[in-house]
From TrEMBL:
Gene3D superfamilies: YehU-like. This is UPF0270 protein RBJ67_20655. Belongs to the UPF0270 family. It comes from Enterobacter soli. The lineage of its organism: Bacteria, Pseudomonadati, Pseudomonadota, Gammaproteobacteria, Enterobacterales. It holds the Pfam family UPF0270. InterPro entries: UPF0270, YehU-like_sf.
C-alpha cells in the first residue's frame, strides 16, 4: 500500500528517509555524498513522484521504491 508522504509529520518523514538511506549501503560514485544530501535527493524524488513510500503488511515495514517498481 502506498503511503502519501504528505500525510506524515516532517520529523517522521525525515526519520524514514534517513533510515532508508543508511541501510542502502556505500556510495560508489566519483564523490561521496553527505547524509543530508542523500536525504534531500530522496525528498526531491518523493515530491516529483519518482519514488513512493510503501507499507508492507506482510513484513510490517515501510520502504521507499521507484514508482514503476511498485505493483498494487
Amino acid at each position: 500500500m502506498i503511503i502519501p508522504w504528505q500525510d506524515l509529520a516532517p520529523e517522521t518523514l525525515d526519520n524514514l528517509i534517513e533510515s532508508f538511506v543508511l541501510r542502502e549501503g556505500t556510495d560508489y560514485g566519483e564523490q561521496e555524498r553527505s547524509l543530508e544530501q542523500k536525504v534531500n535527493d530522496v525528498k526531491r524524488q518523493l515530491k516529483s513522484g519518482e519514488v513512493v513510500l510503501v507499507w508492507s503488511e506482510l513484513h510490517e515495514t515501510v520502504n521507499i521504491m521507484p514508482r514503476n517498481a511498485f505493483h498494487d
